[in-house]
Amino acid sequence: MKDVAYIALGSNLGQREVFLAEARRAIADLDHTRVLAQTDAEETEPVGPVAQGPFLNQMVAIETELSPKDLLAALKRIEVAAGRVRSTRWGPRTLDLDIVLFEKQRVQESDLTVPHPELSNRAFWLRELAELRATQLG
């Protein structure tokens, strides 16, 4: 089923702009997927208990035929290709890709919840999501 998904991109290690650009290209190259729109990147303070540098964040809207689980697996592969190491929860990372929302689907599983459970706690996600949805409806 074709659906529109919103993916949050974030980086706070290394060449943050490069990691986001490479992630956007990799997402655009996914099978049965096309990027519809993207927000400008913005710097945000990290969330959570770990002291670390600021994030560069951005969101993309994609149209995809991938299932939520297949999309999640693809995003994890993109993170690994960017050097992401999962060691400390909420710790610094080269690339973080989160499925924030699907327009038509909801998921509640042990390894994936959509809409993302932190959506209401991230003002920049809400702002970026509203911007992208407006471009889709406009």
Helix and strand succession?
EHEEEHEEEH
Radius of gyration: 14 Å
Proportion of residues in extended strands: 25-35%
Distance between the termini: 23 Å
| Mean of pLDDT | 91
Oligomeric grouping of the chains:
single chain
Q: How many DSSP E strands?
A: 7
Low-confidence spans: pLDDT under 50, at least 5 residues? none
Question: How does the major sheet shape up?
Answer: 5 strands, antiparallel
**What general outline do the C-alpha atoms trace?**
globular
Structural class: alpha+beta
Can you tell me about this structure?
The structure is a single chain. This protein has 138 residues and is of the alpha+beta class. The chain has three helices and seven strands; from the N terminus they run E-H-E-E-E-H-E-E-E-H. The protein has helices at 16-28, 68-81, 123-137, and strands at residues 3-11, 33-38, 42-44, 55-64, 96-102, 107-109, 112-114. The strands form two sheets. Strands 1, 2, 3, 4 and 5 form a five-stranded antiparallel β-sheet that branches. It has a two-stranded antiparallel sheet with strand order 6-7. A hairpin with a 2-residue loop joins strand 6 (107-109) and strand 7 (112-114). The longest helix is centred in the C-terminal third of the chain and has 15 residues, at 123-137. The chain is globular and about 40 Å long.
